[in-house]
Design brief:
Layout: H1 2-19, E1 52-56, E2 59-63, H2 66-74, H3 76-80
Antiparallel strand pairs: 1-2
């Protein structure tokens, strides 16, 4: 029974990781986000409510709101260039 539960929880974690676009074998933590401003709008993080955080290709990225996440997802390279 314990083996079945372990298998089920492992499969659930893999499915969740794949759903979020994260490789299942990814064990390295994302690089921390270096700014206190939204990467898309430039607004202060937290000024529009709860900060939205996601990981993109090993880099933590923070947004002031969900609409900024949608804009980022359309052209991530455009915004990630701001971090360098």
């Amino acid at each position: 029974m314990k083996t079945k539960l372990t298998l089920i929880s492992t499969l659930a974690a893999v499915a969740l990781a794949l759903t979020m676009g994260v490789p299942a074998a990814s064990a390295a933590p994302a690089k921390p986000y270096p700014s206190k401003e939204c990467i898309v709008s430039g607004n202060e993080l937290g000024s529009m409510g709860k900060v939205v955080t996601k990981s993109h290709e090993g880099q933590e990225v923070k947004f002031c709101c969900k609409p900024c996440v949608k804009k980022f997802d359309k052209a991530p390279a455009k915004y990630l260039g701001k971090l360098k």
